[in-house]
Amino acid sequence: MIEELIKTIPESIMESLGGVFCSGREAFSGQKDIYVLGLNPGGVPDAEYGVTVSQSIDRVLDVSESNWSAYRDASWEDAKPGTWGMQPRVLHMFEILGLNPGEVPASNLIFTQSRREKDIEVRWNVLAEECWPFHSEVIRKLGVKTIICFGKKAGKFVASKMSAKTLADEFIENNKRRWRSEAYISDDGVKVIVASHPSIANWRSTSADPCQMIKRVLE
Fold this sequence. Notes:
The chain has one domain: Uracil-DNA glycosylase-like domain (Uracil-DNA Glycosylase, subunit E, 3-Layer(aba) Sandwich). It has helices at 2-6, 53-62, 70-73, 87-97, 124-142, 152-161, 211-218; strands spanning 34-38, 106-108, 146-150, 164-172, 180-186, 191-195. A hairpin with a 7-residue loop joins β4 (164-172) and β5. Strands 2-1-3-6-5-4 form a six-stranded mixed β-sheet, sandwiched between helices. It is built from seven helices and six strands; from the N terminus they run αβαααβαβαβββα.
């Protein structure tokens, strides 16, 4: 299955710094209800030490453990696996939902790496459209019913693509900024959750945690 999905990734971005898979072969096989999407790989692009999209694909294919998650098993910034940045916050979500991270397909809307969202702002829509055929095929082949998106940028794009326009639920942070996480549903029942981005919002803090709302939407 995963080999078939890889064929939809355009050759034009294969040598760009970045990555496609945030979970491994087991996650991208069979039928899956949930698909998790970030915006794009973060970190400082490094032409000398960085990993290209093509190399990142090879690494996932070559990992002996098919049940693998970048949020649980990858070492970010040389830290202990699962402990850096937003990793613990995403793992918190999986725990609340009662899911094994290595069994849930996860990726980024855009495969090209950038330090900040603003660094790809000019090319954002072009890059998103370029990568969308892969995501569309994942959703179709795996029978995805709910897409959990990190951040409004990715979430609104996906909701538009899926024609998910009806507000089904929402969570408003109990703090001064009052950020909203929202869930939309399409006419054919596909749900798109536009959550706050866990790289910024501390999902492990009750006041900013959208995970109970996400859980309600999945029930």
